[in-house]
């Protein structure tokens, strides 16, 4: 190869070495091997050479061309490898990156209210007891001094499974089961589902009650009022007022409907009273020695008061747009 051709080869080598993209590489190719490129113009010199020098010149220019082509191919392969690596780097999934966050949801508003109530009563010394939802009439009615003529016993008001069993209409049978299995004194709450043939904006066919029972030697209505005011204030705020209205339950004497004043109105949320002596007799407690207070509150009603819910049925419709507000 002549000195001139060697210099051109060196120049091409250097230029190709500097290139880092396919586009730049193509520019270099055109410059050296294109129609108007260096190698072509070198070939064109053939016709001006004496015939005996032409083969030699042609061979040397072809060698130059082959060599430049070889270097270009090498570089092309290198660039392709680099570009693939770069693409892989961009597409690479980093397993240490935080994933897409899925919303976890939260407890149902009724569960929250129930747990809040449980915490309040537990802090006042009550313990939690549960009872069956499928109940025998004796526990649901008879033992609770509820006479045959009482409307709750009617088929129109309660769900009977057969003659021996019904879905409990309140949590009060848990009082009976607890007193039969434990000796006084005792302080229990019993949350759970209860069933009645009811359905409107303030009544559900399946709802949740929480029974409270406190039996000791000198329990009075003042204790009852204390527990009710205390739970209402802790749940709804210091200024919450509680009202006891005289009422009737076969298993308590005296009996009360208890209302809570919140957001400028009264809400009926629970029934309560002093355990009737006949109930104590039915479970083998001596009514001369023991006094008891009891109450049964509706958890849905309390949730309605606390969160300003107008229609009780919204609580069980399972509409996420409603439930996610709390
Ligand atoms: C009773 O069920 C009595 N066992 C309560 C009781 C216990 C009294 C211990 C004395 C001693 P009552 O039927 O009033 O009482 O129901 C109690 C509460 O349950 C009501 O104040 C109300 O908050 C709620 N409640 C009653 N029926 C429904 C219903 N269909 N849907 C939602 N809540 C209801």
From TrEMBL:
CDD domains xref list: PheRS_alpha_core
Principal location: cytoplasm
Aminoacyl-transfer RNA synthetases class-II family profile domain mapped to chain residues: 107-305
Cell location: Cytoplasm
GO CC terms in record: cytoplasm
Enzyme category, top tier: ligase
EC annotation from Swiss-Prot or TrEMBL: 6.1.1.20
Binding locations of Mg(2+): 253
Catalytic activity: tRNA(Phe) + L-phenylalanine + ATP = L-phenylalanyl-tRNA(Phe) + AMP + diphosphate + H(+)
Subunit structure, as described in the record: Tetramer of two alpha and two beta subunits.
Protein name: Phenylalanine--tRNA ligase alpha subunit
Organism of this sequence: Fervidobacterium thailandense
Gene: pheS
């Amino acid at each position: 190869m002549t000195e001139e051709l060697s210099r051109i080869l060196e120049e091409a080598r250097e230029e190709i070495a500097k290139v880092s993209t396919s586009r730049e590489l193509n520019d270099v190719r055109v410059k050296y091997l294109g129609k108007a490129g260096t190698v072509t113009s070198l070939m064109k010199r053939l016709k001006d050479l004496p015939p005996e020098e032409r083969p030699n010149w042609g061979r040397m220019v072809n060698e130059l061309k082959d060599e430049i082509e070889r270097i270009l191919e090498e570089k092309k392969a290198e660039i392709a490898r680099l570009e693939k690596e770069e693409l892989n780097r961009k597409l690479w999934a980093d397993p240490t990156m935080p994933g897409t966050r899925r919303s976890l949801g939260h407890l149902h508003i009724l569960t929250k209210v129930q747990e809040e109530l449980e915490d309040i009563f537990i802090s006042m010394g009550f313990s939690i007891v549960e009872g069956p939802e499928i109940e025998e009439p004796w526990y649901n009615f008879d033992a609770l001094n509820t006479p045959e003529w009482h409307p709750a016993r009617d088929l129109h008001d309660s769900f009977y499974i057969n003659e021996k069993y019904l879905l409990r209409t309140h949590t009060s049978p848990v009082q009976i089961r607890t007193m039969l299995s434990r000796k006084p004194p005792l302080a229990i709450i019993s949350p759970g589902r209860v069933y009645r043939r009811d359905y409107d904006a303030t009544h559900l066919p399946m709802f949740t009650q929480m029974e409270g029972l406190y039996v000791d030697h000198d329990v009075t209505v003042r204790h009852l009022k204390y527990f009710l005011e205390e739970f209402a204030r802790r749940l709804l705020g210091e200024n919450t007022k509680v009202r006891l209205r005289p009422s009737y339950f076969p298993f308590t004497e005296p009996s009360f409907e208890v209302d809570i004043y919140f957001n400028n109105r009264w809400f009926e949320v629970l029934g309560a009273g002093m355990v009737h002596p006949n109930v104590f007799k039915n479970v083998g407690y001596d009514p001369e020695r023991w006094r008891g207070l009891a109450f049964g509150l509706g958890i849905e009603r309390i949730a309605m008061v606390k969160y300003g819910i107008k229609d009780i049925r919204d609580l069980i419709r399972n509409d996420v747009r409603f439930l996610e507000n709390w």
